[in-house]
Amino acid sequence: MTTIDDLPIRDDLRGKSPYGAPQLNVPVQLNTNENSYPVPDDVVEAIGKAVQAELRDLNRYPDRDAIALRNELAGYLGHGLTTANVWAANGSNEVQQQLLQAFGGPGRSALGFGPSYSMHPLLAQGTGTRWIGALRDPDFGLRPEAAVAEIEKHDPDLVFVCSPNNPTGTALDPAVIDAILNRARGMVIVDEAYTEFSRPGTASALTLLPHHPRLVVSRTMSKAFGFAGGRLGYLAADPAVVDAVQLVRLPYHLSAISQAAARAAVVHRASLLATVEAIKEQRDRIVQVLRGRGVQVADSDANFVLFATGPDQKVDWQAFLDRGVLIRDVGLTGWLRVTAGTGDETTAFLNAAEEILSGERSEPIGRSAANAAHSPEERSEEGL
Fold first, then answer.
1. What pLDDT score does 305 carry?
2. Nearest to 263 by CA among 33, 54, 34
3. Contact 134, 113 (CB under 8 A)
4. CA 87 to CA 301: how far, in whole Å?
């Protein structure tokens, strides 16, 4: 039987594992940060009609530049953005891959601050871009001076930051992003996949766009919109950035059906986003209950919560699974992540947590422990 190692695969891909999370048929699935609420009936009907209208013309290629969709997305984002400021692709992963293709590549480097989204180093590797893994603070935050010090040390061509951050849920002060922009010579990508779940007063990097032509804000419809199966991500940036990614995008990369479905979803965003407050309520409930039980929990502006476990989080992950609750082991020693789902799903998780974590009370994590827990090597092997 032929294996990958028998093929002339690139040397830097040998021994690697594909990104992914366990897909198991269990009663409570809270491991991939999906929106637990199904698409509302009125939106299902609207998407169905939009897709139906495209079927007869499937013999023709779709709009290569997705103008109508980008116009709808610009209207949703506001901040004076226009179609020229927005680009869309098959999920925010493809958006970020295109950015690395355009601004990274062999002989160039990208810097990120972990623990963070592990697809960033994987996308960098796939485009031949050298990945530099710096570290966040022990509390998972990021200070402007610490970020600037890493940029001055490595002089990267691209800088990736997540706000809110995955897997910690930590949002960044715009002053941090501003400091990065003022020091970095290359592109700065702010991944805002979870921004709709932010607590009141949390600013978006969109406010910085008018003054920073090298800033890119990456978004997705997979989370708050509950459109994960639709695979639609997008970016907001200076029009010159949009022009640049079009140099590397595949022709007709967004199908006519994808564009039609996404347009209908954006038009009916009020119905889709109606669940956001309910999800935030369950997130805050998880934080409050776990902390009330003495469990250390990271602050979250996302639709998930990172919480401390015993020293071997794999044991606790299995214990949750044995109780029918699937959560995420993100490869961070002594921590697990749970998605905020429906009220019933949250209750099931909290009941399981009461049994599993009753004897495990974590002391605040120290600097050396934090750094060991999310070393660059560990992050690169785990899907966050």
1. 98
2. 54
3. yes
4. 25
pTM value surpassing 0.85? yes
Q: Which residues share a beta bridge with 336?
A: 307
Contact 260, 130 (CB under 8 A): no
Task: Please give the distance of CA 94 from its chain centroid, rounded to a whole number.
Answer: 12
Q: The tokens 């003054």 sit on which residue? A: 211
Are the C-beta atoms of residues 172 and 142 closer than 8 Å to each other? yes
Q: Is residue 186 within 8 Å of residue 160, measured between CB atoms?
A: no
Task: State the chain's mean pLDDT as an integer.
Answer: 92
The answer to whether the bond into 115 is cis (omega within 30° of 0) is: yes
pLDDT band at 363 (very low <50, low <70, confident <90, very high): very low
- In contact, 191 and 161? CB cutoff 8 Å: yes
Residue 99 pLDDT more than 80? yes
Rounded CA separation 54/39 (Å): 21
Q: How far apart are CA 345 and CA 52, in angstroms?
A: 34
325 φ, ψ (degrees, to nearest 5): -120, 115
Burial label for 114, CB within 10 Å (0-12, 13-18, 19+), is buried
Residue 88 in tokens: 């869309």
pLDDT, one tens digit per residue, over 260-310 is 999 999 999 999 999 999 999 999 999 999 999 999 999 999 999 999 999
Separation between Cα atoms, residue 380 and residue 93, nearest integer Å = 16
